[in-house]
Specification:
Elements: E1 12-21, E2 24-34, E3 40-43, H1 50-58, E4 65-70, E5 81-84, H2 95-105, H3 110-123, H4 139-151, E6 157-161, H5 169-184, E7 188-193, H6 196-202, E8 205-210, E9 213-219, H7 220-225, H8 230-236
Parallel strand pairs: 3-7, 3-8, 5-6, 6-7
Antiparallel strand pairs: 1-2, 1-4, 8-9
């Protein structure tokens, strides 16, 4: 992949965004901006609103209040954005077939799909598994294929929702290596996790979310070495947040 000079959907800006469902506030009056650069890792306890924040930034969730803009534009179609779910669904096709389908949806010309499929499989370390039924891949391999499938649309920004949940250490390391490679190519990565070790290894900046609010946001070394808020200090220390 080539380095990118700019990203058309960036910055993504939240202006006083709240999301409520069934009388429950999931995101509470959030104002922030997501810009090009190193990976942004959103951390926080279960139920803090991490997934909803990512889905709202993707455009999958409509705010109850406030607005979201992509590169200064409202109601921007997600042409340059991609999202990998925590448990991605695999099509009843081979690994290569999953990618070929994604490339067709992304309107990549047919003559280019074969070569691009090989590139994507190589990028995520699935060389030689092109003919393997996707649903017979291991959990880690399926997650890597899901990332490759997301990259088929050549996004400016990639959202990863708990991409290593339930994976063993070896599979987790493989995913982390891929994330670093993607970020180095110039694609903005925004990832959610509750795993502090993973956050330390992959983040350029950290955003701590709790009860739907951004508690603290800082460069990763600063956050982990000198957390500013009581909630941040407690979370870094492995304590439960009230």
């Amino acid at each position: 992949m080539n380095m990118r000079a700019s990203a058309s959907d960036l910055p993504i800006r939240f202006d006083q965004v709240s999301v409520s469902r069934g009388g429950v506030t999931i995101l509470d009056d959030i104002t922030l901006q997501i810009e090009p650069g190193a990976p942004t890792v959103v951390i926080g306890p279960n139920g803090s609103g991490k997934t909803t924040l990512l889905r709202t930034a993707m455009g999958l969730v409509i705010p109850s209040k406030g607005r979201v803009t992509w590169g200064g534009v409202e109601q921007s179609p997600p042409i340059h954005r991609a999202f990998v779910f925590q448990r991605p669904a695999m099509l009843r096709r081979s690994a290569a077939g999953n990618l070929s389908y994604a490339l067709r949806i992304a309107r990549v010309p047919g003559a280019q799909r074969g070569g691009r499929t090989k590139e994507l499989l190589s990028l995520v370390g699935l060389d030689g598994l092109d003919k393997r039924p996707a649903r017979r891949l291991s959990g880690g391999e399926q997650q890597r294929l899901a990332i490759a499938r997301a990259l088929a649309r050549d996004p400016d920004i990639l959202f990863l929702d708990e991409p290593t949940a339930s994976l063993d250490p070896a599979a987790t390391r493989a995913i982390e290596d891929i994330i670093r490679s993607i970020a180095a190519s110039g694609i903005k990565v925004v990832m959610s996790t509750h795993d502090l070790g993973k956050a330390k290894r992959t983040a350029g900046e950290i955003m701590l979310l709790h009860r739907g609010r951004v508690i603290e946001r800082a460069d990763a070394p600063e956050f982990f070495n000198s957390p500013k808020t009581g909630e941040s200090k407690a979370f870094v220390a492995g304590e439960l947040l009230a």
